[in-house]
Amino acid sequence: MIHVGLQHFLVVAALLFCLGLTCVLVRRNAVAILIGIELILNAAGLNLIAFARFGGDLLSGTVFVVFLIVLAAAEAVVGLALIIAVHRRLRDIDLERSDELRG
Amino acid sequence: MRVPLSSIDSLAYAVPELVVCGGAIGLFLLAAAARRPRSWHGWLFPLVSGGAILASLGWLVWFGLESASRPLFSADGQGLVIFSGLVACDPLAVAFRALCLLAAGAGVLLSVGSPSLPKTQRAEYHGLLLVLCAGMCLLASASHLLMIYVALETVSLCSYLLVGWDRSRSRSTEAGLKYVLYGGVASGVMLFGMSLIYGLFGSLDLQGLHQAIAGSDALATAPGRWAALLGFAFVLAGLGYKVAAVPFHMWCPDAYEGAPTPFTALLSVGPKAAGFAVLMRFFWGIFLDGPGVGAATLDADIPWPLLLGVISALTMTLGNLVAIVQDNLKRLLAYSSIAHAGYVLMGVVAGGQDGFESVALYMTVYLFMNIGAFAVVSAVDRSAGSEDIRQYSGLGSRSPWLALLLAIFLFSLTGLPPTAGFIGKLYLFAALIARGGTWYLVLALVGIVNSVISLFYYARVLKAMYLEQPALTEPVKAANAAGVLAFLMAVPTLVFGLFWQPLGVLASWSSRLLH
Predict the structure, then answer these.
(1) To the nearest whole percent, how much of chain B has pLDDT over 70?
(2) CA closest to A30 among chain B residues
(3) Burial environment of residue B277 by CB neighbours within 10 A (0 to 12, 13 to 18, 19 or more)
(4) Residue B144 belongs to some domain of the structure
(5) What is the ipTM, given to two decimal places?
(6) Nearest CA distance, B171 vs chain A (angstrom)
(7) How far is B338 from chain A (nearest CA, A)?
(8) Between chains, do A48 and B258 touch, taking CB under 8 Å as contact?
């Protein structure tokens, strides 16, 4: 029987964070980048909740995660709204193709 | 440790936030009632949002004046912790909230009659502007990691929407999309950093963190030190993104160029001022024993001033060098605003009472000159429909007043006397040189060289206005909100260049931050 401690949570969170960051840096599709951002946010949330559980100050870490979930949802809404606005115009959400602004 | 006020008692200290939130709710209700665009919408909604911003500004001025005569903040005049420790109410918060609201007021004035904003959904535009104001005010006074995150997200979410507001122009939506993607990554990374700091030191409160770091054994081991470094570096990345410091500046030129010009003017000053307030609060509040007196507690392992100094040098150099090759004036001003973030970072690097004083003073001066420059750009944009530098050729003969105003702002942005920009730079360099270390002097030298470089591209605009033959002959109308705002901003730019004493007094008052 493996005892699941703080380190296990931290390793998972670090992996999630790296996966999210890789997704953001590698993918050129706007929706995929949004998914990557979501992974990063959830990595931070997992960290917070693990520290709250194993650390001491249980309340503030837990409350932080509740705010994080709400704000992550709001960010996804705004991101998707802008993606739809771009898609209506270009019929595509590949960032390589929206390149009017450069220099 | 200061005892925080309870939430009910705190409400008396958060009047600006309450007023702008009330105004925003009112506007969203009005938006539901007035679906069809009518001609009177063009002035009613700006009137509501402008009124809320003016009322908040008035309260801040009253509060600042009152606190000089009787100790409103606390017995020692330093400040109060309100909302159970989430928000600080100190002179720095009052001053930077006023700066953010001034920038927002200018944004509202510029939006009146501007053709670059759609005629529909005006109430929503002004409502979001007020929510942005509430976010900026909270960001400038946040003293808790949770509050910093929530306020930063409020500012960011409203900014994304307002940058991409004009759906009829593909540049606007594209800028909004790029901004939301960069911003999402930056805030996610910052949040991961915050979670590490919370885990290491067990506190989210800046005051609590300060004490926890001083007495922490987490820094004694190598993994603990690395985790701390990573955490603070990630938070620095999030805050650096907000003030558009290199290497987190990529969103800035696109967002500034794509956004409707009235909003660009606000975006280039308001969130930046709030970002600098929280940057000072976060780094110096945590690491120093007191502004300008003690040694940094975490300085031995991680040389924060040096790190910020390198970022500052990179920011101004890159901003100035790339600005040289720009042909779009809005984009040119975007790179120039990146460079100015680098200059202001010099004041943050200097730290201490005089460092904060120089930051507060420079942000005030920057507000006048940068919003003024954008007001002229907006005035030209109104008649020409473009921000290309070619539209400015012969402006000196087509509309001499606008050209003169733009020339004043550009001289001030360069930092030439007798404009306020010169005084601002003087304070920054003085604060930096007073530190005395070799690399402080090197940084000051980099700043001076950069000011010279910036003269080159500002002079390019002046040359187009006064020496080139006009491509068009019709005059640019200046008798509108944009022209009025440009004039209003030119007055302090010139007056404070000659009589900077009141500005200095104000800055030295507002450089006191709660500790």
Answers:
(1) 95
(2) B181
(3) buried
(4) no
(5) 0.94
(6) 6
(7) 14
(8) no
